[in-house]
Amino acid sequence: MTIRKETEITLQLMRKKMIITGSLVVVVFGILSAVVISIYSTARFGRAYALGSLLGVANGAVGFLTIEKFIDKSTLVFLRGVFLGMGVRLALLLGVFVLFMYVVRVDASGMISGLFVFYFTMTVLEVIFLNKRIELRKAMGESSK
């Protein structure tokens, strides 16, 4: 088997592991959140929390896709893509957040709580994924020499 084929298999395996890990983390956090909210809070707060959670998870999913799109480009293109992507995601997130707060009138504390928990959870997973992709990229570069 060639080094390129081996690296592609490793990359596919890593992607699958990150998708499974991310999904498990989201499900576990979602279940824990649902239990705590059902015991200690109102249904209105719970719906707003779920909405904020979905925004956080969607933001993280777009972050993963951005990393995948730009990781094999030059460093400058990668940084531009990732930082521009972060800015666009943040602007869209703010727009959707304001829309839900002022037009739909969801519970602010619930939405902020859900967004906070899942935004930072997905950000941690993004950083872990990015580090693994960079390690694989370095290994690919060294093995091709």
Structural notes for this entry:
This protein is mostly helical. Helix 2 runs antiparallel to helix 3 (75-104). The chain has helices spanning 3-40, 43-70, 75-104, 108-143. It is built from four helices and no strands. The protein has one domain (3-143). It is 91% helix and 0% strand. The mean pLDDT is 88.
What brief labels describe this structure?
145 residues, mainly alpha, 4 helices, 0% strand
Radius of gyration: 18 Å
**Computed structural class:** mainly alpha
Rounded average pLDDT: 88
Q: Count of helical segments?
A: 4
Indicate how many domains the architecture comprises: 1
Residues in helices, as a percent range: over 70%
Q: State the low-pLDDT regions, or none.
A: none
How many β-strands, per DSSP?
0
In short:
This protein is mostly helical and 145 residues long.
Topology summary:
Elements: H1 3-40, H2 43-70, H3 75-104, H4 108-143
Helix pairs in contact: 1-2, 1-4, 2-3, 2-4
